[in-house]
């Protein structure tokens, strides 16, 4: 293994070669080397999910350590699992575990499906390896289990040989089988992800993407990669850029879209190298979209998120999704409560122009849930065509909605059902006013049962009890209406 100081020379001719960067990962991920640079404690031990860093990642950490303490903290939290996190048992499987006997048994347990979903969710279908499906019309190809950096919060557990990414995908044969299945299924929206698909070489990438680009049935093709910020030199590769440009043009010619989705969590990741990578992609005529996960200690304050989202907006990147942190093994300390997440979403709506605000989502095992900003309400006022709105300043306003026959029919039906239920419930409630002990006493002394017909007329004392059975003089009277 090379000495770490030899590989951190960013003036070397190899520095901009992404293959060279990936080859240096063992030296840059070695805890002894990282401890000698002061990036981890000398007592740090490798965990099941191994640290994964390239020279570029290490150099960025070292630069941030002296120039930007907040950025340094964010990068450290993203790069290393907390030392307090043991090799805990996995909390959450995004993909269904077809390979576990317990999953097989659970699926066959004779209990209602809704109860199973309530406790364990549904997860995505992975009956074809390297192909994941959660939503109608969208299929996901897991093109590889390799990434440049192993993110500490990764729900695919990249860096773990038994992790979800490694389990779900494999060699090119498995990936191509998934691609062919998607084309046969005629899925219109396809996401190629991983791991990071851009860690595949150009030839493999061409092999995976070409059938999808050329398939008449694929309408939107998204390529997910974090190499824009984790290994930007991947996008200095002219051969790759020419290939991506060609794919974008081919899809455009048949009125379809080819997009790149990246993942940035902190503005310190948008280095000059990352900006160059973004501009190279955009120069190919490809739209870049970003997704950001809100993580405690990294970006869970409005100032950090605002700075990041505004910077991305300025760079022409579409802020696509803002994710609540998922329950991933060993990352509890990075998670943000839902209440705080909603509050941040509310504040972002207040501070950012509409073009910069991403769609906020809770990621669950029954799919992504849109999250509305905290404090912003739109409540229909029954039997009017008004909506009661609460603005980001806390002002209330009655907004005139368009005529909505469906809403009024629903309201009328609800009112009708409520009245009927009340008519039934009130007499029952009145009956239950008799103390239990007293009622028991009465029931025990019933000697005779009589049916009362209302047409015969009741004594005055009984009138108020019409239609309610009652006991008097050891007789149970059952009033019947209409006899
Ligand atoms: S780049 Fe994505 S897939 Fe790879 S480790 Fe990070 S979060 Fe996981």
Would you spell out the secondary-structure blueprint of this structure?
Layout: H1 4-7, H2 18-23, H3 25-29, H4 31-36, H5 55-67, H6 69-79, H7 101-108, H8 113-120, E1 131-132, E2 138-142, H9 164-168, H10 172-185, E3 189-193, H11 202-214, E4 220-224, H12 227-230, H13 238-253, E5 257-263, H14 272-283, E6 287-293, H15 302-314, E7 318-323, H16 338-351, E8 359-364, E9 367-370, E10 377-380, E11 386-390, E12 396-400, H17 405-431, H18 436-444, E13 448-453, H19 460-463, E14 470-472, E15 475-480
Parallel strand pairs: 2-3, 3-4, 4-5, 5-6, 6-7, 7-8, 13-15
Antiparallel strand pairs: 1-2, 8-9, 10-11, 11-12, 14-15
The structure holds iron/sulfur cluster (SF4).
Task: Name the beta content range.
Answer: 15-25%
So, CATH architecture of the largest domain?
Answer: Alpha-Beta Barrel
Strand order of the largest sheet: 1-2-3-4-5-6-7-8-9
**Main β-sheet, in a few words?**
9 strands, mixed
- The CATH superfamily label of the largest domain reads Aldolase class I
Query: What is the approximate shape?
Result: elongated
First-to-last CA distance: 100 Å
Number of contiguous helices: 19
How many domains? The number is 4
- What structural class do you assign from the helix and strand content? alpha/beta
Total strands: 15
Helix content range: 25-40%
Mean pLDDT: 88
Topology-level CATH name of the largest domain: TIM Barrel
Can you list the ligands bound to this structure? Answer: iron/sulfur cluster
What is the radius of gyration? 31 Å
CATH class of the largest domain: Alpha Beta
GO molecular function, one term: 4 iron, 4 sulfur cluster binding
Protein name: Radical SAM core domain-containing protein
InterPro entries: Aldolase_TIM (IPR013785), Lys_aminomutase/Glu_NH3_mut (IPR003739), rSAM (IPR007197), rSAM_sf (IPR058240)
Keywords: 4Fe-4S, Iron, Iron-sulfur, Isomerase, Metal-binding, Pyridoxal phosphate, S-adenosyl-L-methionine
